[in-house]
Amino acid sequence: MRFRCQLVALIAVMLLGTACTPEDSALPTPAPVATDAIVDSPPYVCKFVPDQAFRLVSGVKGSLSEQTNGNETNGDCGTPGAIPKSLSVAWMQEAPQSTREYLGEVMDDRRKVFTRHGAATLPADLGEGLAVHLAYAGVDEQPYQVVARFNCGGKQRIITLYLAQIAKGRDGIRDTIELMRIAQKRYGQLYACTPGK
Predict the structure, then answer these.
(1) What highest taxon heads this organism's lineage (predicted)?
(2) Fewest Cβ atoms closer than 10 Å to its Cβ: which of 24, 75, 87, 119?
(3) How far apart are CA 8 and CA 12, in angstroms?
(4) CA 20 centroid distance within chain
(5) What are phi and psi of 166, to 5 degrees?
């Protein structure tokens, strides 16, 4: 009989202990937001994006190769070897074959798509532009995109960055905007013009 009383008391204590456990202790802890700074330092991927910053933002590991097409006026570069490419960069410059009006049309088209998906407007010092995560993107697409139209050397330019992924815990929109800031600065260095002028 004494054993039964002890067993009942033990069960009662266990039930009370379980009942008094706070419910929120079972909730998962949110993942911390990564705050490592994006730094502009060589070497660069596709001429405009710092390798170390790209790896920090995307979580990509291993060696990267690049394939570039075009010239200073119009071109693109990507990191082949994976589908989708982990990074693609496209640029165009106001020229006889790419008039200011044409660049405006390109931006209008991108704006229509990006704003339907909750795009963030770029800071004014980066010119006219948007950053977006296209949640509907297919397996062969790069859902993180940022585009900017800016003046450099008295001519309009457009740079677009496409990323296949963002590292866990990173803010994809904020990070792609910072990569765009560096890409514009690099563009000015490479092509002897001052972004924003």
Answers:
(1) Bacteria
(2) 24
(3) 6
(4) 44
(5) -125, 140
Domain boundaries, position 173: 61-190
Q: What's the number of domains the chain is made of?
A: 1
| DSSP character string of 138-150 | -TTS--EEEEEEE
pLDDT in tens, the chain (197 residues): 554 444 444 444 444 444 444 444 444 444 555 568 999 999 999 999 999 999 999 999 988 899 999 998 899 999 987 667 899 999 999 999 899 999 999 999 999 999 999 999 999 999 999 999 998 766 568 999 999 999 999 999 999 999 999 999 999 999 999 999 999 999 999 999 999 98
103 lies in a domain? yes
Residue 56 placed within a domain: no
> What residue type is 91 in one-letter code?
W
| In a domain? residue 7 | no
Q: Give the separation between CA 76 and CA 88, rounded to whole angstroms.
A: 7
Q: Which helix (H) or strand (E) holds 55?
A: helix 51-58
First to last CA, the chain: 92
* pTM metric for this prediction: 0.81
Q: Name residues whose C-beta falls within 8 Å of residue 102's C-beta, 6 or more positions apart in sequence.
A: none
Q: How many CB atoms lie within 10 A of CB 109?
A: 10
Which amino acid is residue 4, in one-letter code?
Answer: R
